[in-house]
Amino acid sequence: MDDKRKTVLSQHHDLDFEADRLDLLAAADPDAVAPGRARQILERELRGLIDRLRAHFRYEEAGGYMAGVGVEKPHLAAEILRLREGHDELRDEMARLEEASFEDGPIAGFRQEIRAFLGRIRHHEQAENEVLERFITEEYGR
Ligand SMILES: [Fe+2]
Question: What single-letter DSSP state applies at residue 34?
Fold first, then answer.
């Protein structure tokens, strides 16, 4: 479990950095680049983050903490099930964002969508970190 936990926490650290980068780009002045370019940049960055999140969720579900912690600490199983369901909700959200066309609307609307999505991702990953910290405290007393 320890190596898997470290991998999950490391992935969370990297994803948090990428989410901050996208947040920063979404806050940038779109007129700093050619017309239409800001939207292209945001779309590319968003798709990249979505791809990495899908791989991260698969890791957590198949090889990462979810199965192991639920078995080792049955009293955390309900919380882990809730987090697992959260993956499905976020996958639906990611599919919606990928399919949505923001080309016709104002870029402010697209930026708002991105920021709302990043907020949900951060909230979810923070809840996972808290479960992992509880596991560590119970297992190792630290
Ligand atoms: Fe995660």
Answer: S
* End-to-end Cα separation, the chain, in angstroms: 16
Ordered by where they begin, the domains of the chain are 2-140 (1.20.120)
pLDDT tens digits for range 108-133: 899 999 999 999 999 999 999 999 88
| 12 alpha carbon – ligand 1 mean position (Å) | 6
**CA 125 / ligand 1 centre spacing (Å):** 5
Give the integer Cα–Cα distance in Å for 105 and 41.
Answer: 16
Spatial contact of 53 and 93, defined as CB atoms under 8 Å apart: no
| Angle between helix 65-72 and helix 77-99 axes, rounded to 10 deg | 160
